[in-house]
Amino acid sequence: MKRNKNKAVPHFNSIDELTNYFDTHDMGEFYEQMPEADFEVDIKRRKYLFALDAEIARKLTEIAKARKITSEALVNAWLIEKIKEQTSSNQQI
Q1: Residue ranges per structural domain of the chain
Q2: What is the pTM of this model?
Q3: pLDDT (tens digit per residue) in 66-82
Q4: Cβ neighbourhood burial of 74 (10 Å; 0-12, 13-18, 19+)
Q5: pLDDT tens figures, 19-28
Q6: Which of 6, 33, 70, 85 is most exposed by smallest CB count within 10 Å?
């Protein structure tokens, strides 16, 4: 593909205009004009997936919605509580 280095990046008044333009144009035409991106990625963070019974998942979602939090936040909070209980009771034995 031949790139036109003289082609200027158009000005857009909205994100919609920008996305509509690049739906029909090749961003590679403007590669030389694009600023270098610099960012860090934390690859140490992990998410773990666990299978739940459908009824448990439904009830969790219902409770989370009532509390206006995500199901993930609710499960994590409850698990933290339970782990603290278990850790405390094991230390007392």
Answers
A1: 1-35, 54-92
A2: 0.49
A3: 999 999 999 999 999 99
A4: middle
A5: 999 899 888 8
A6: 6
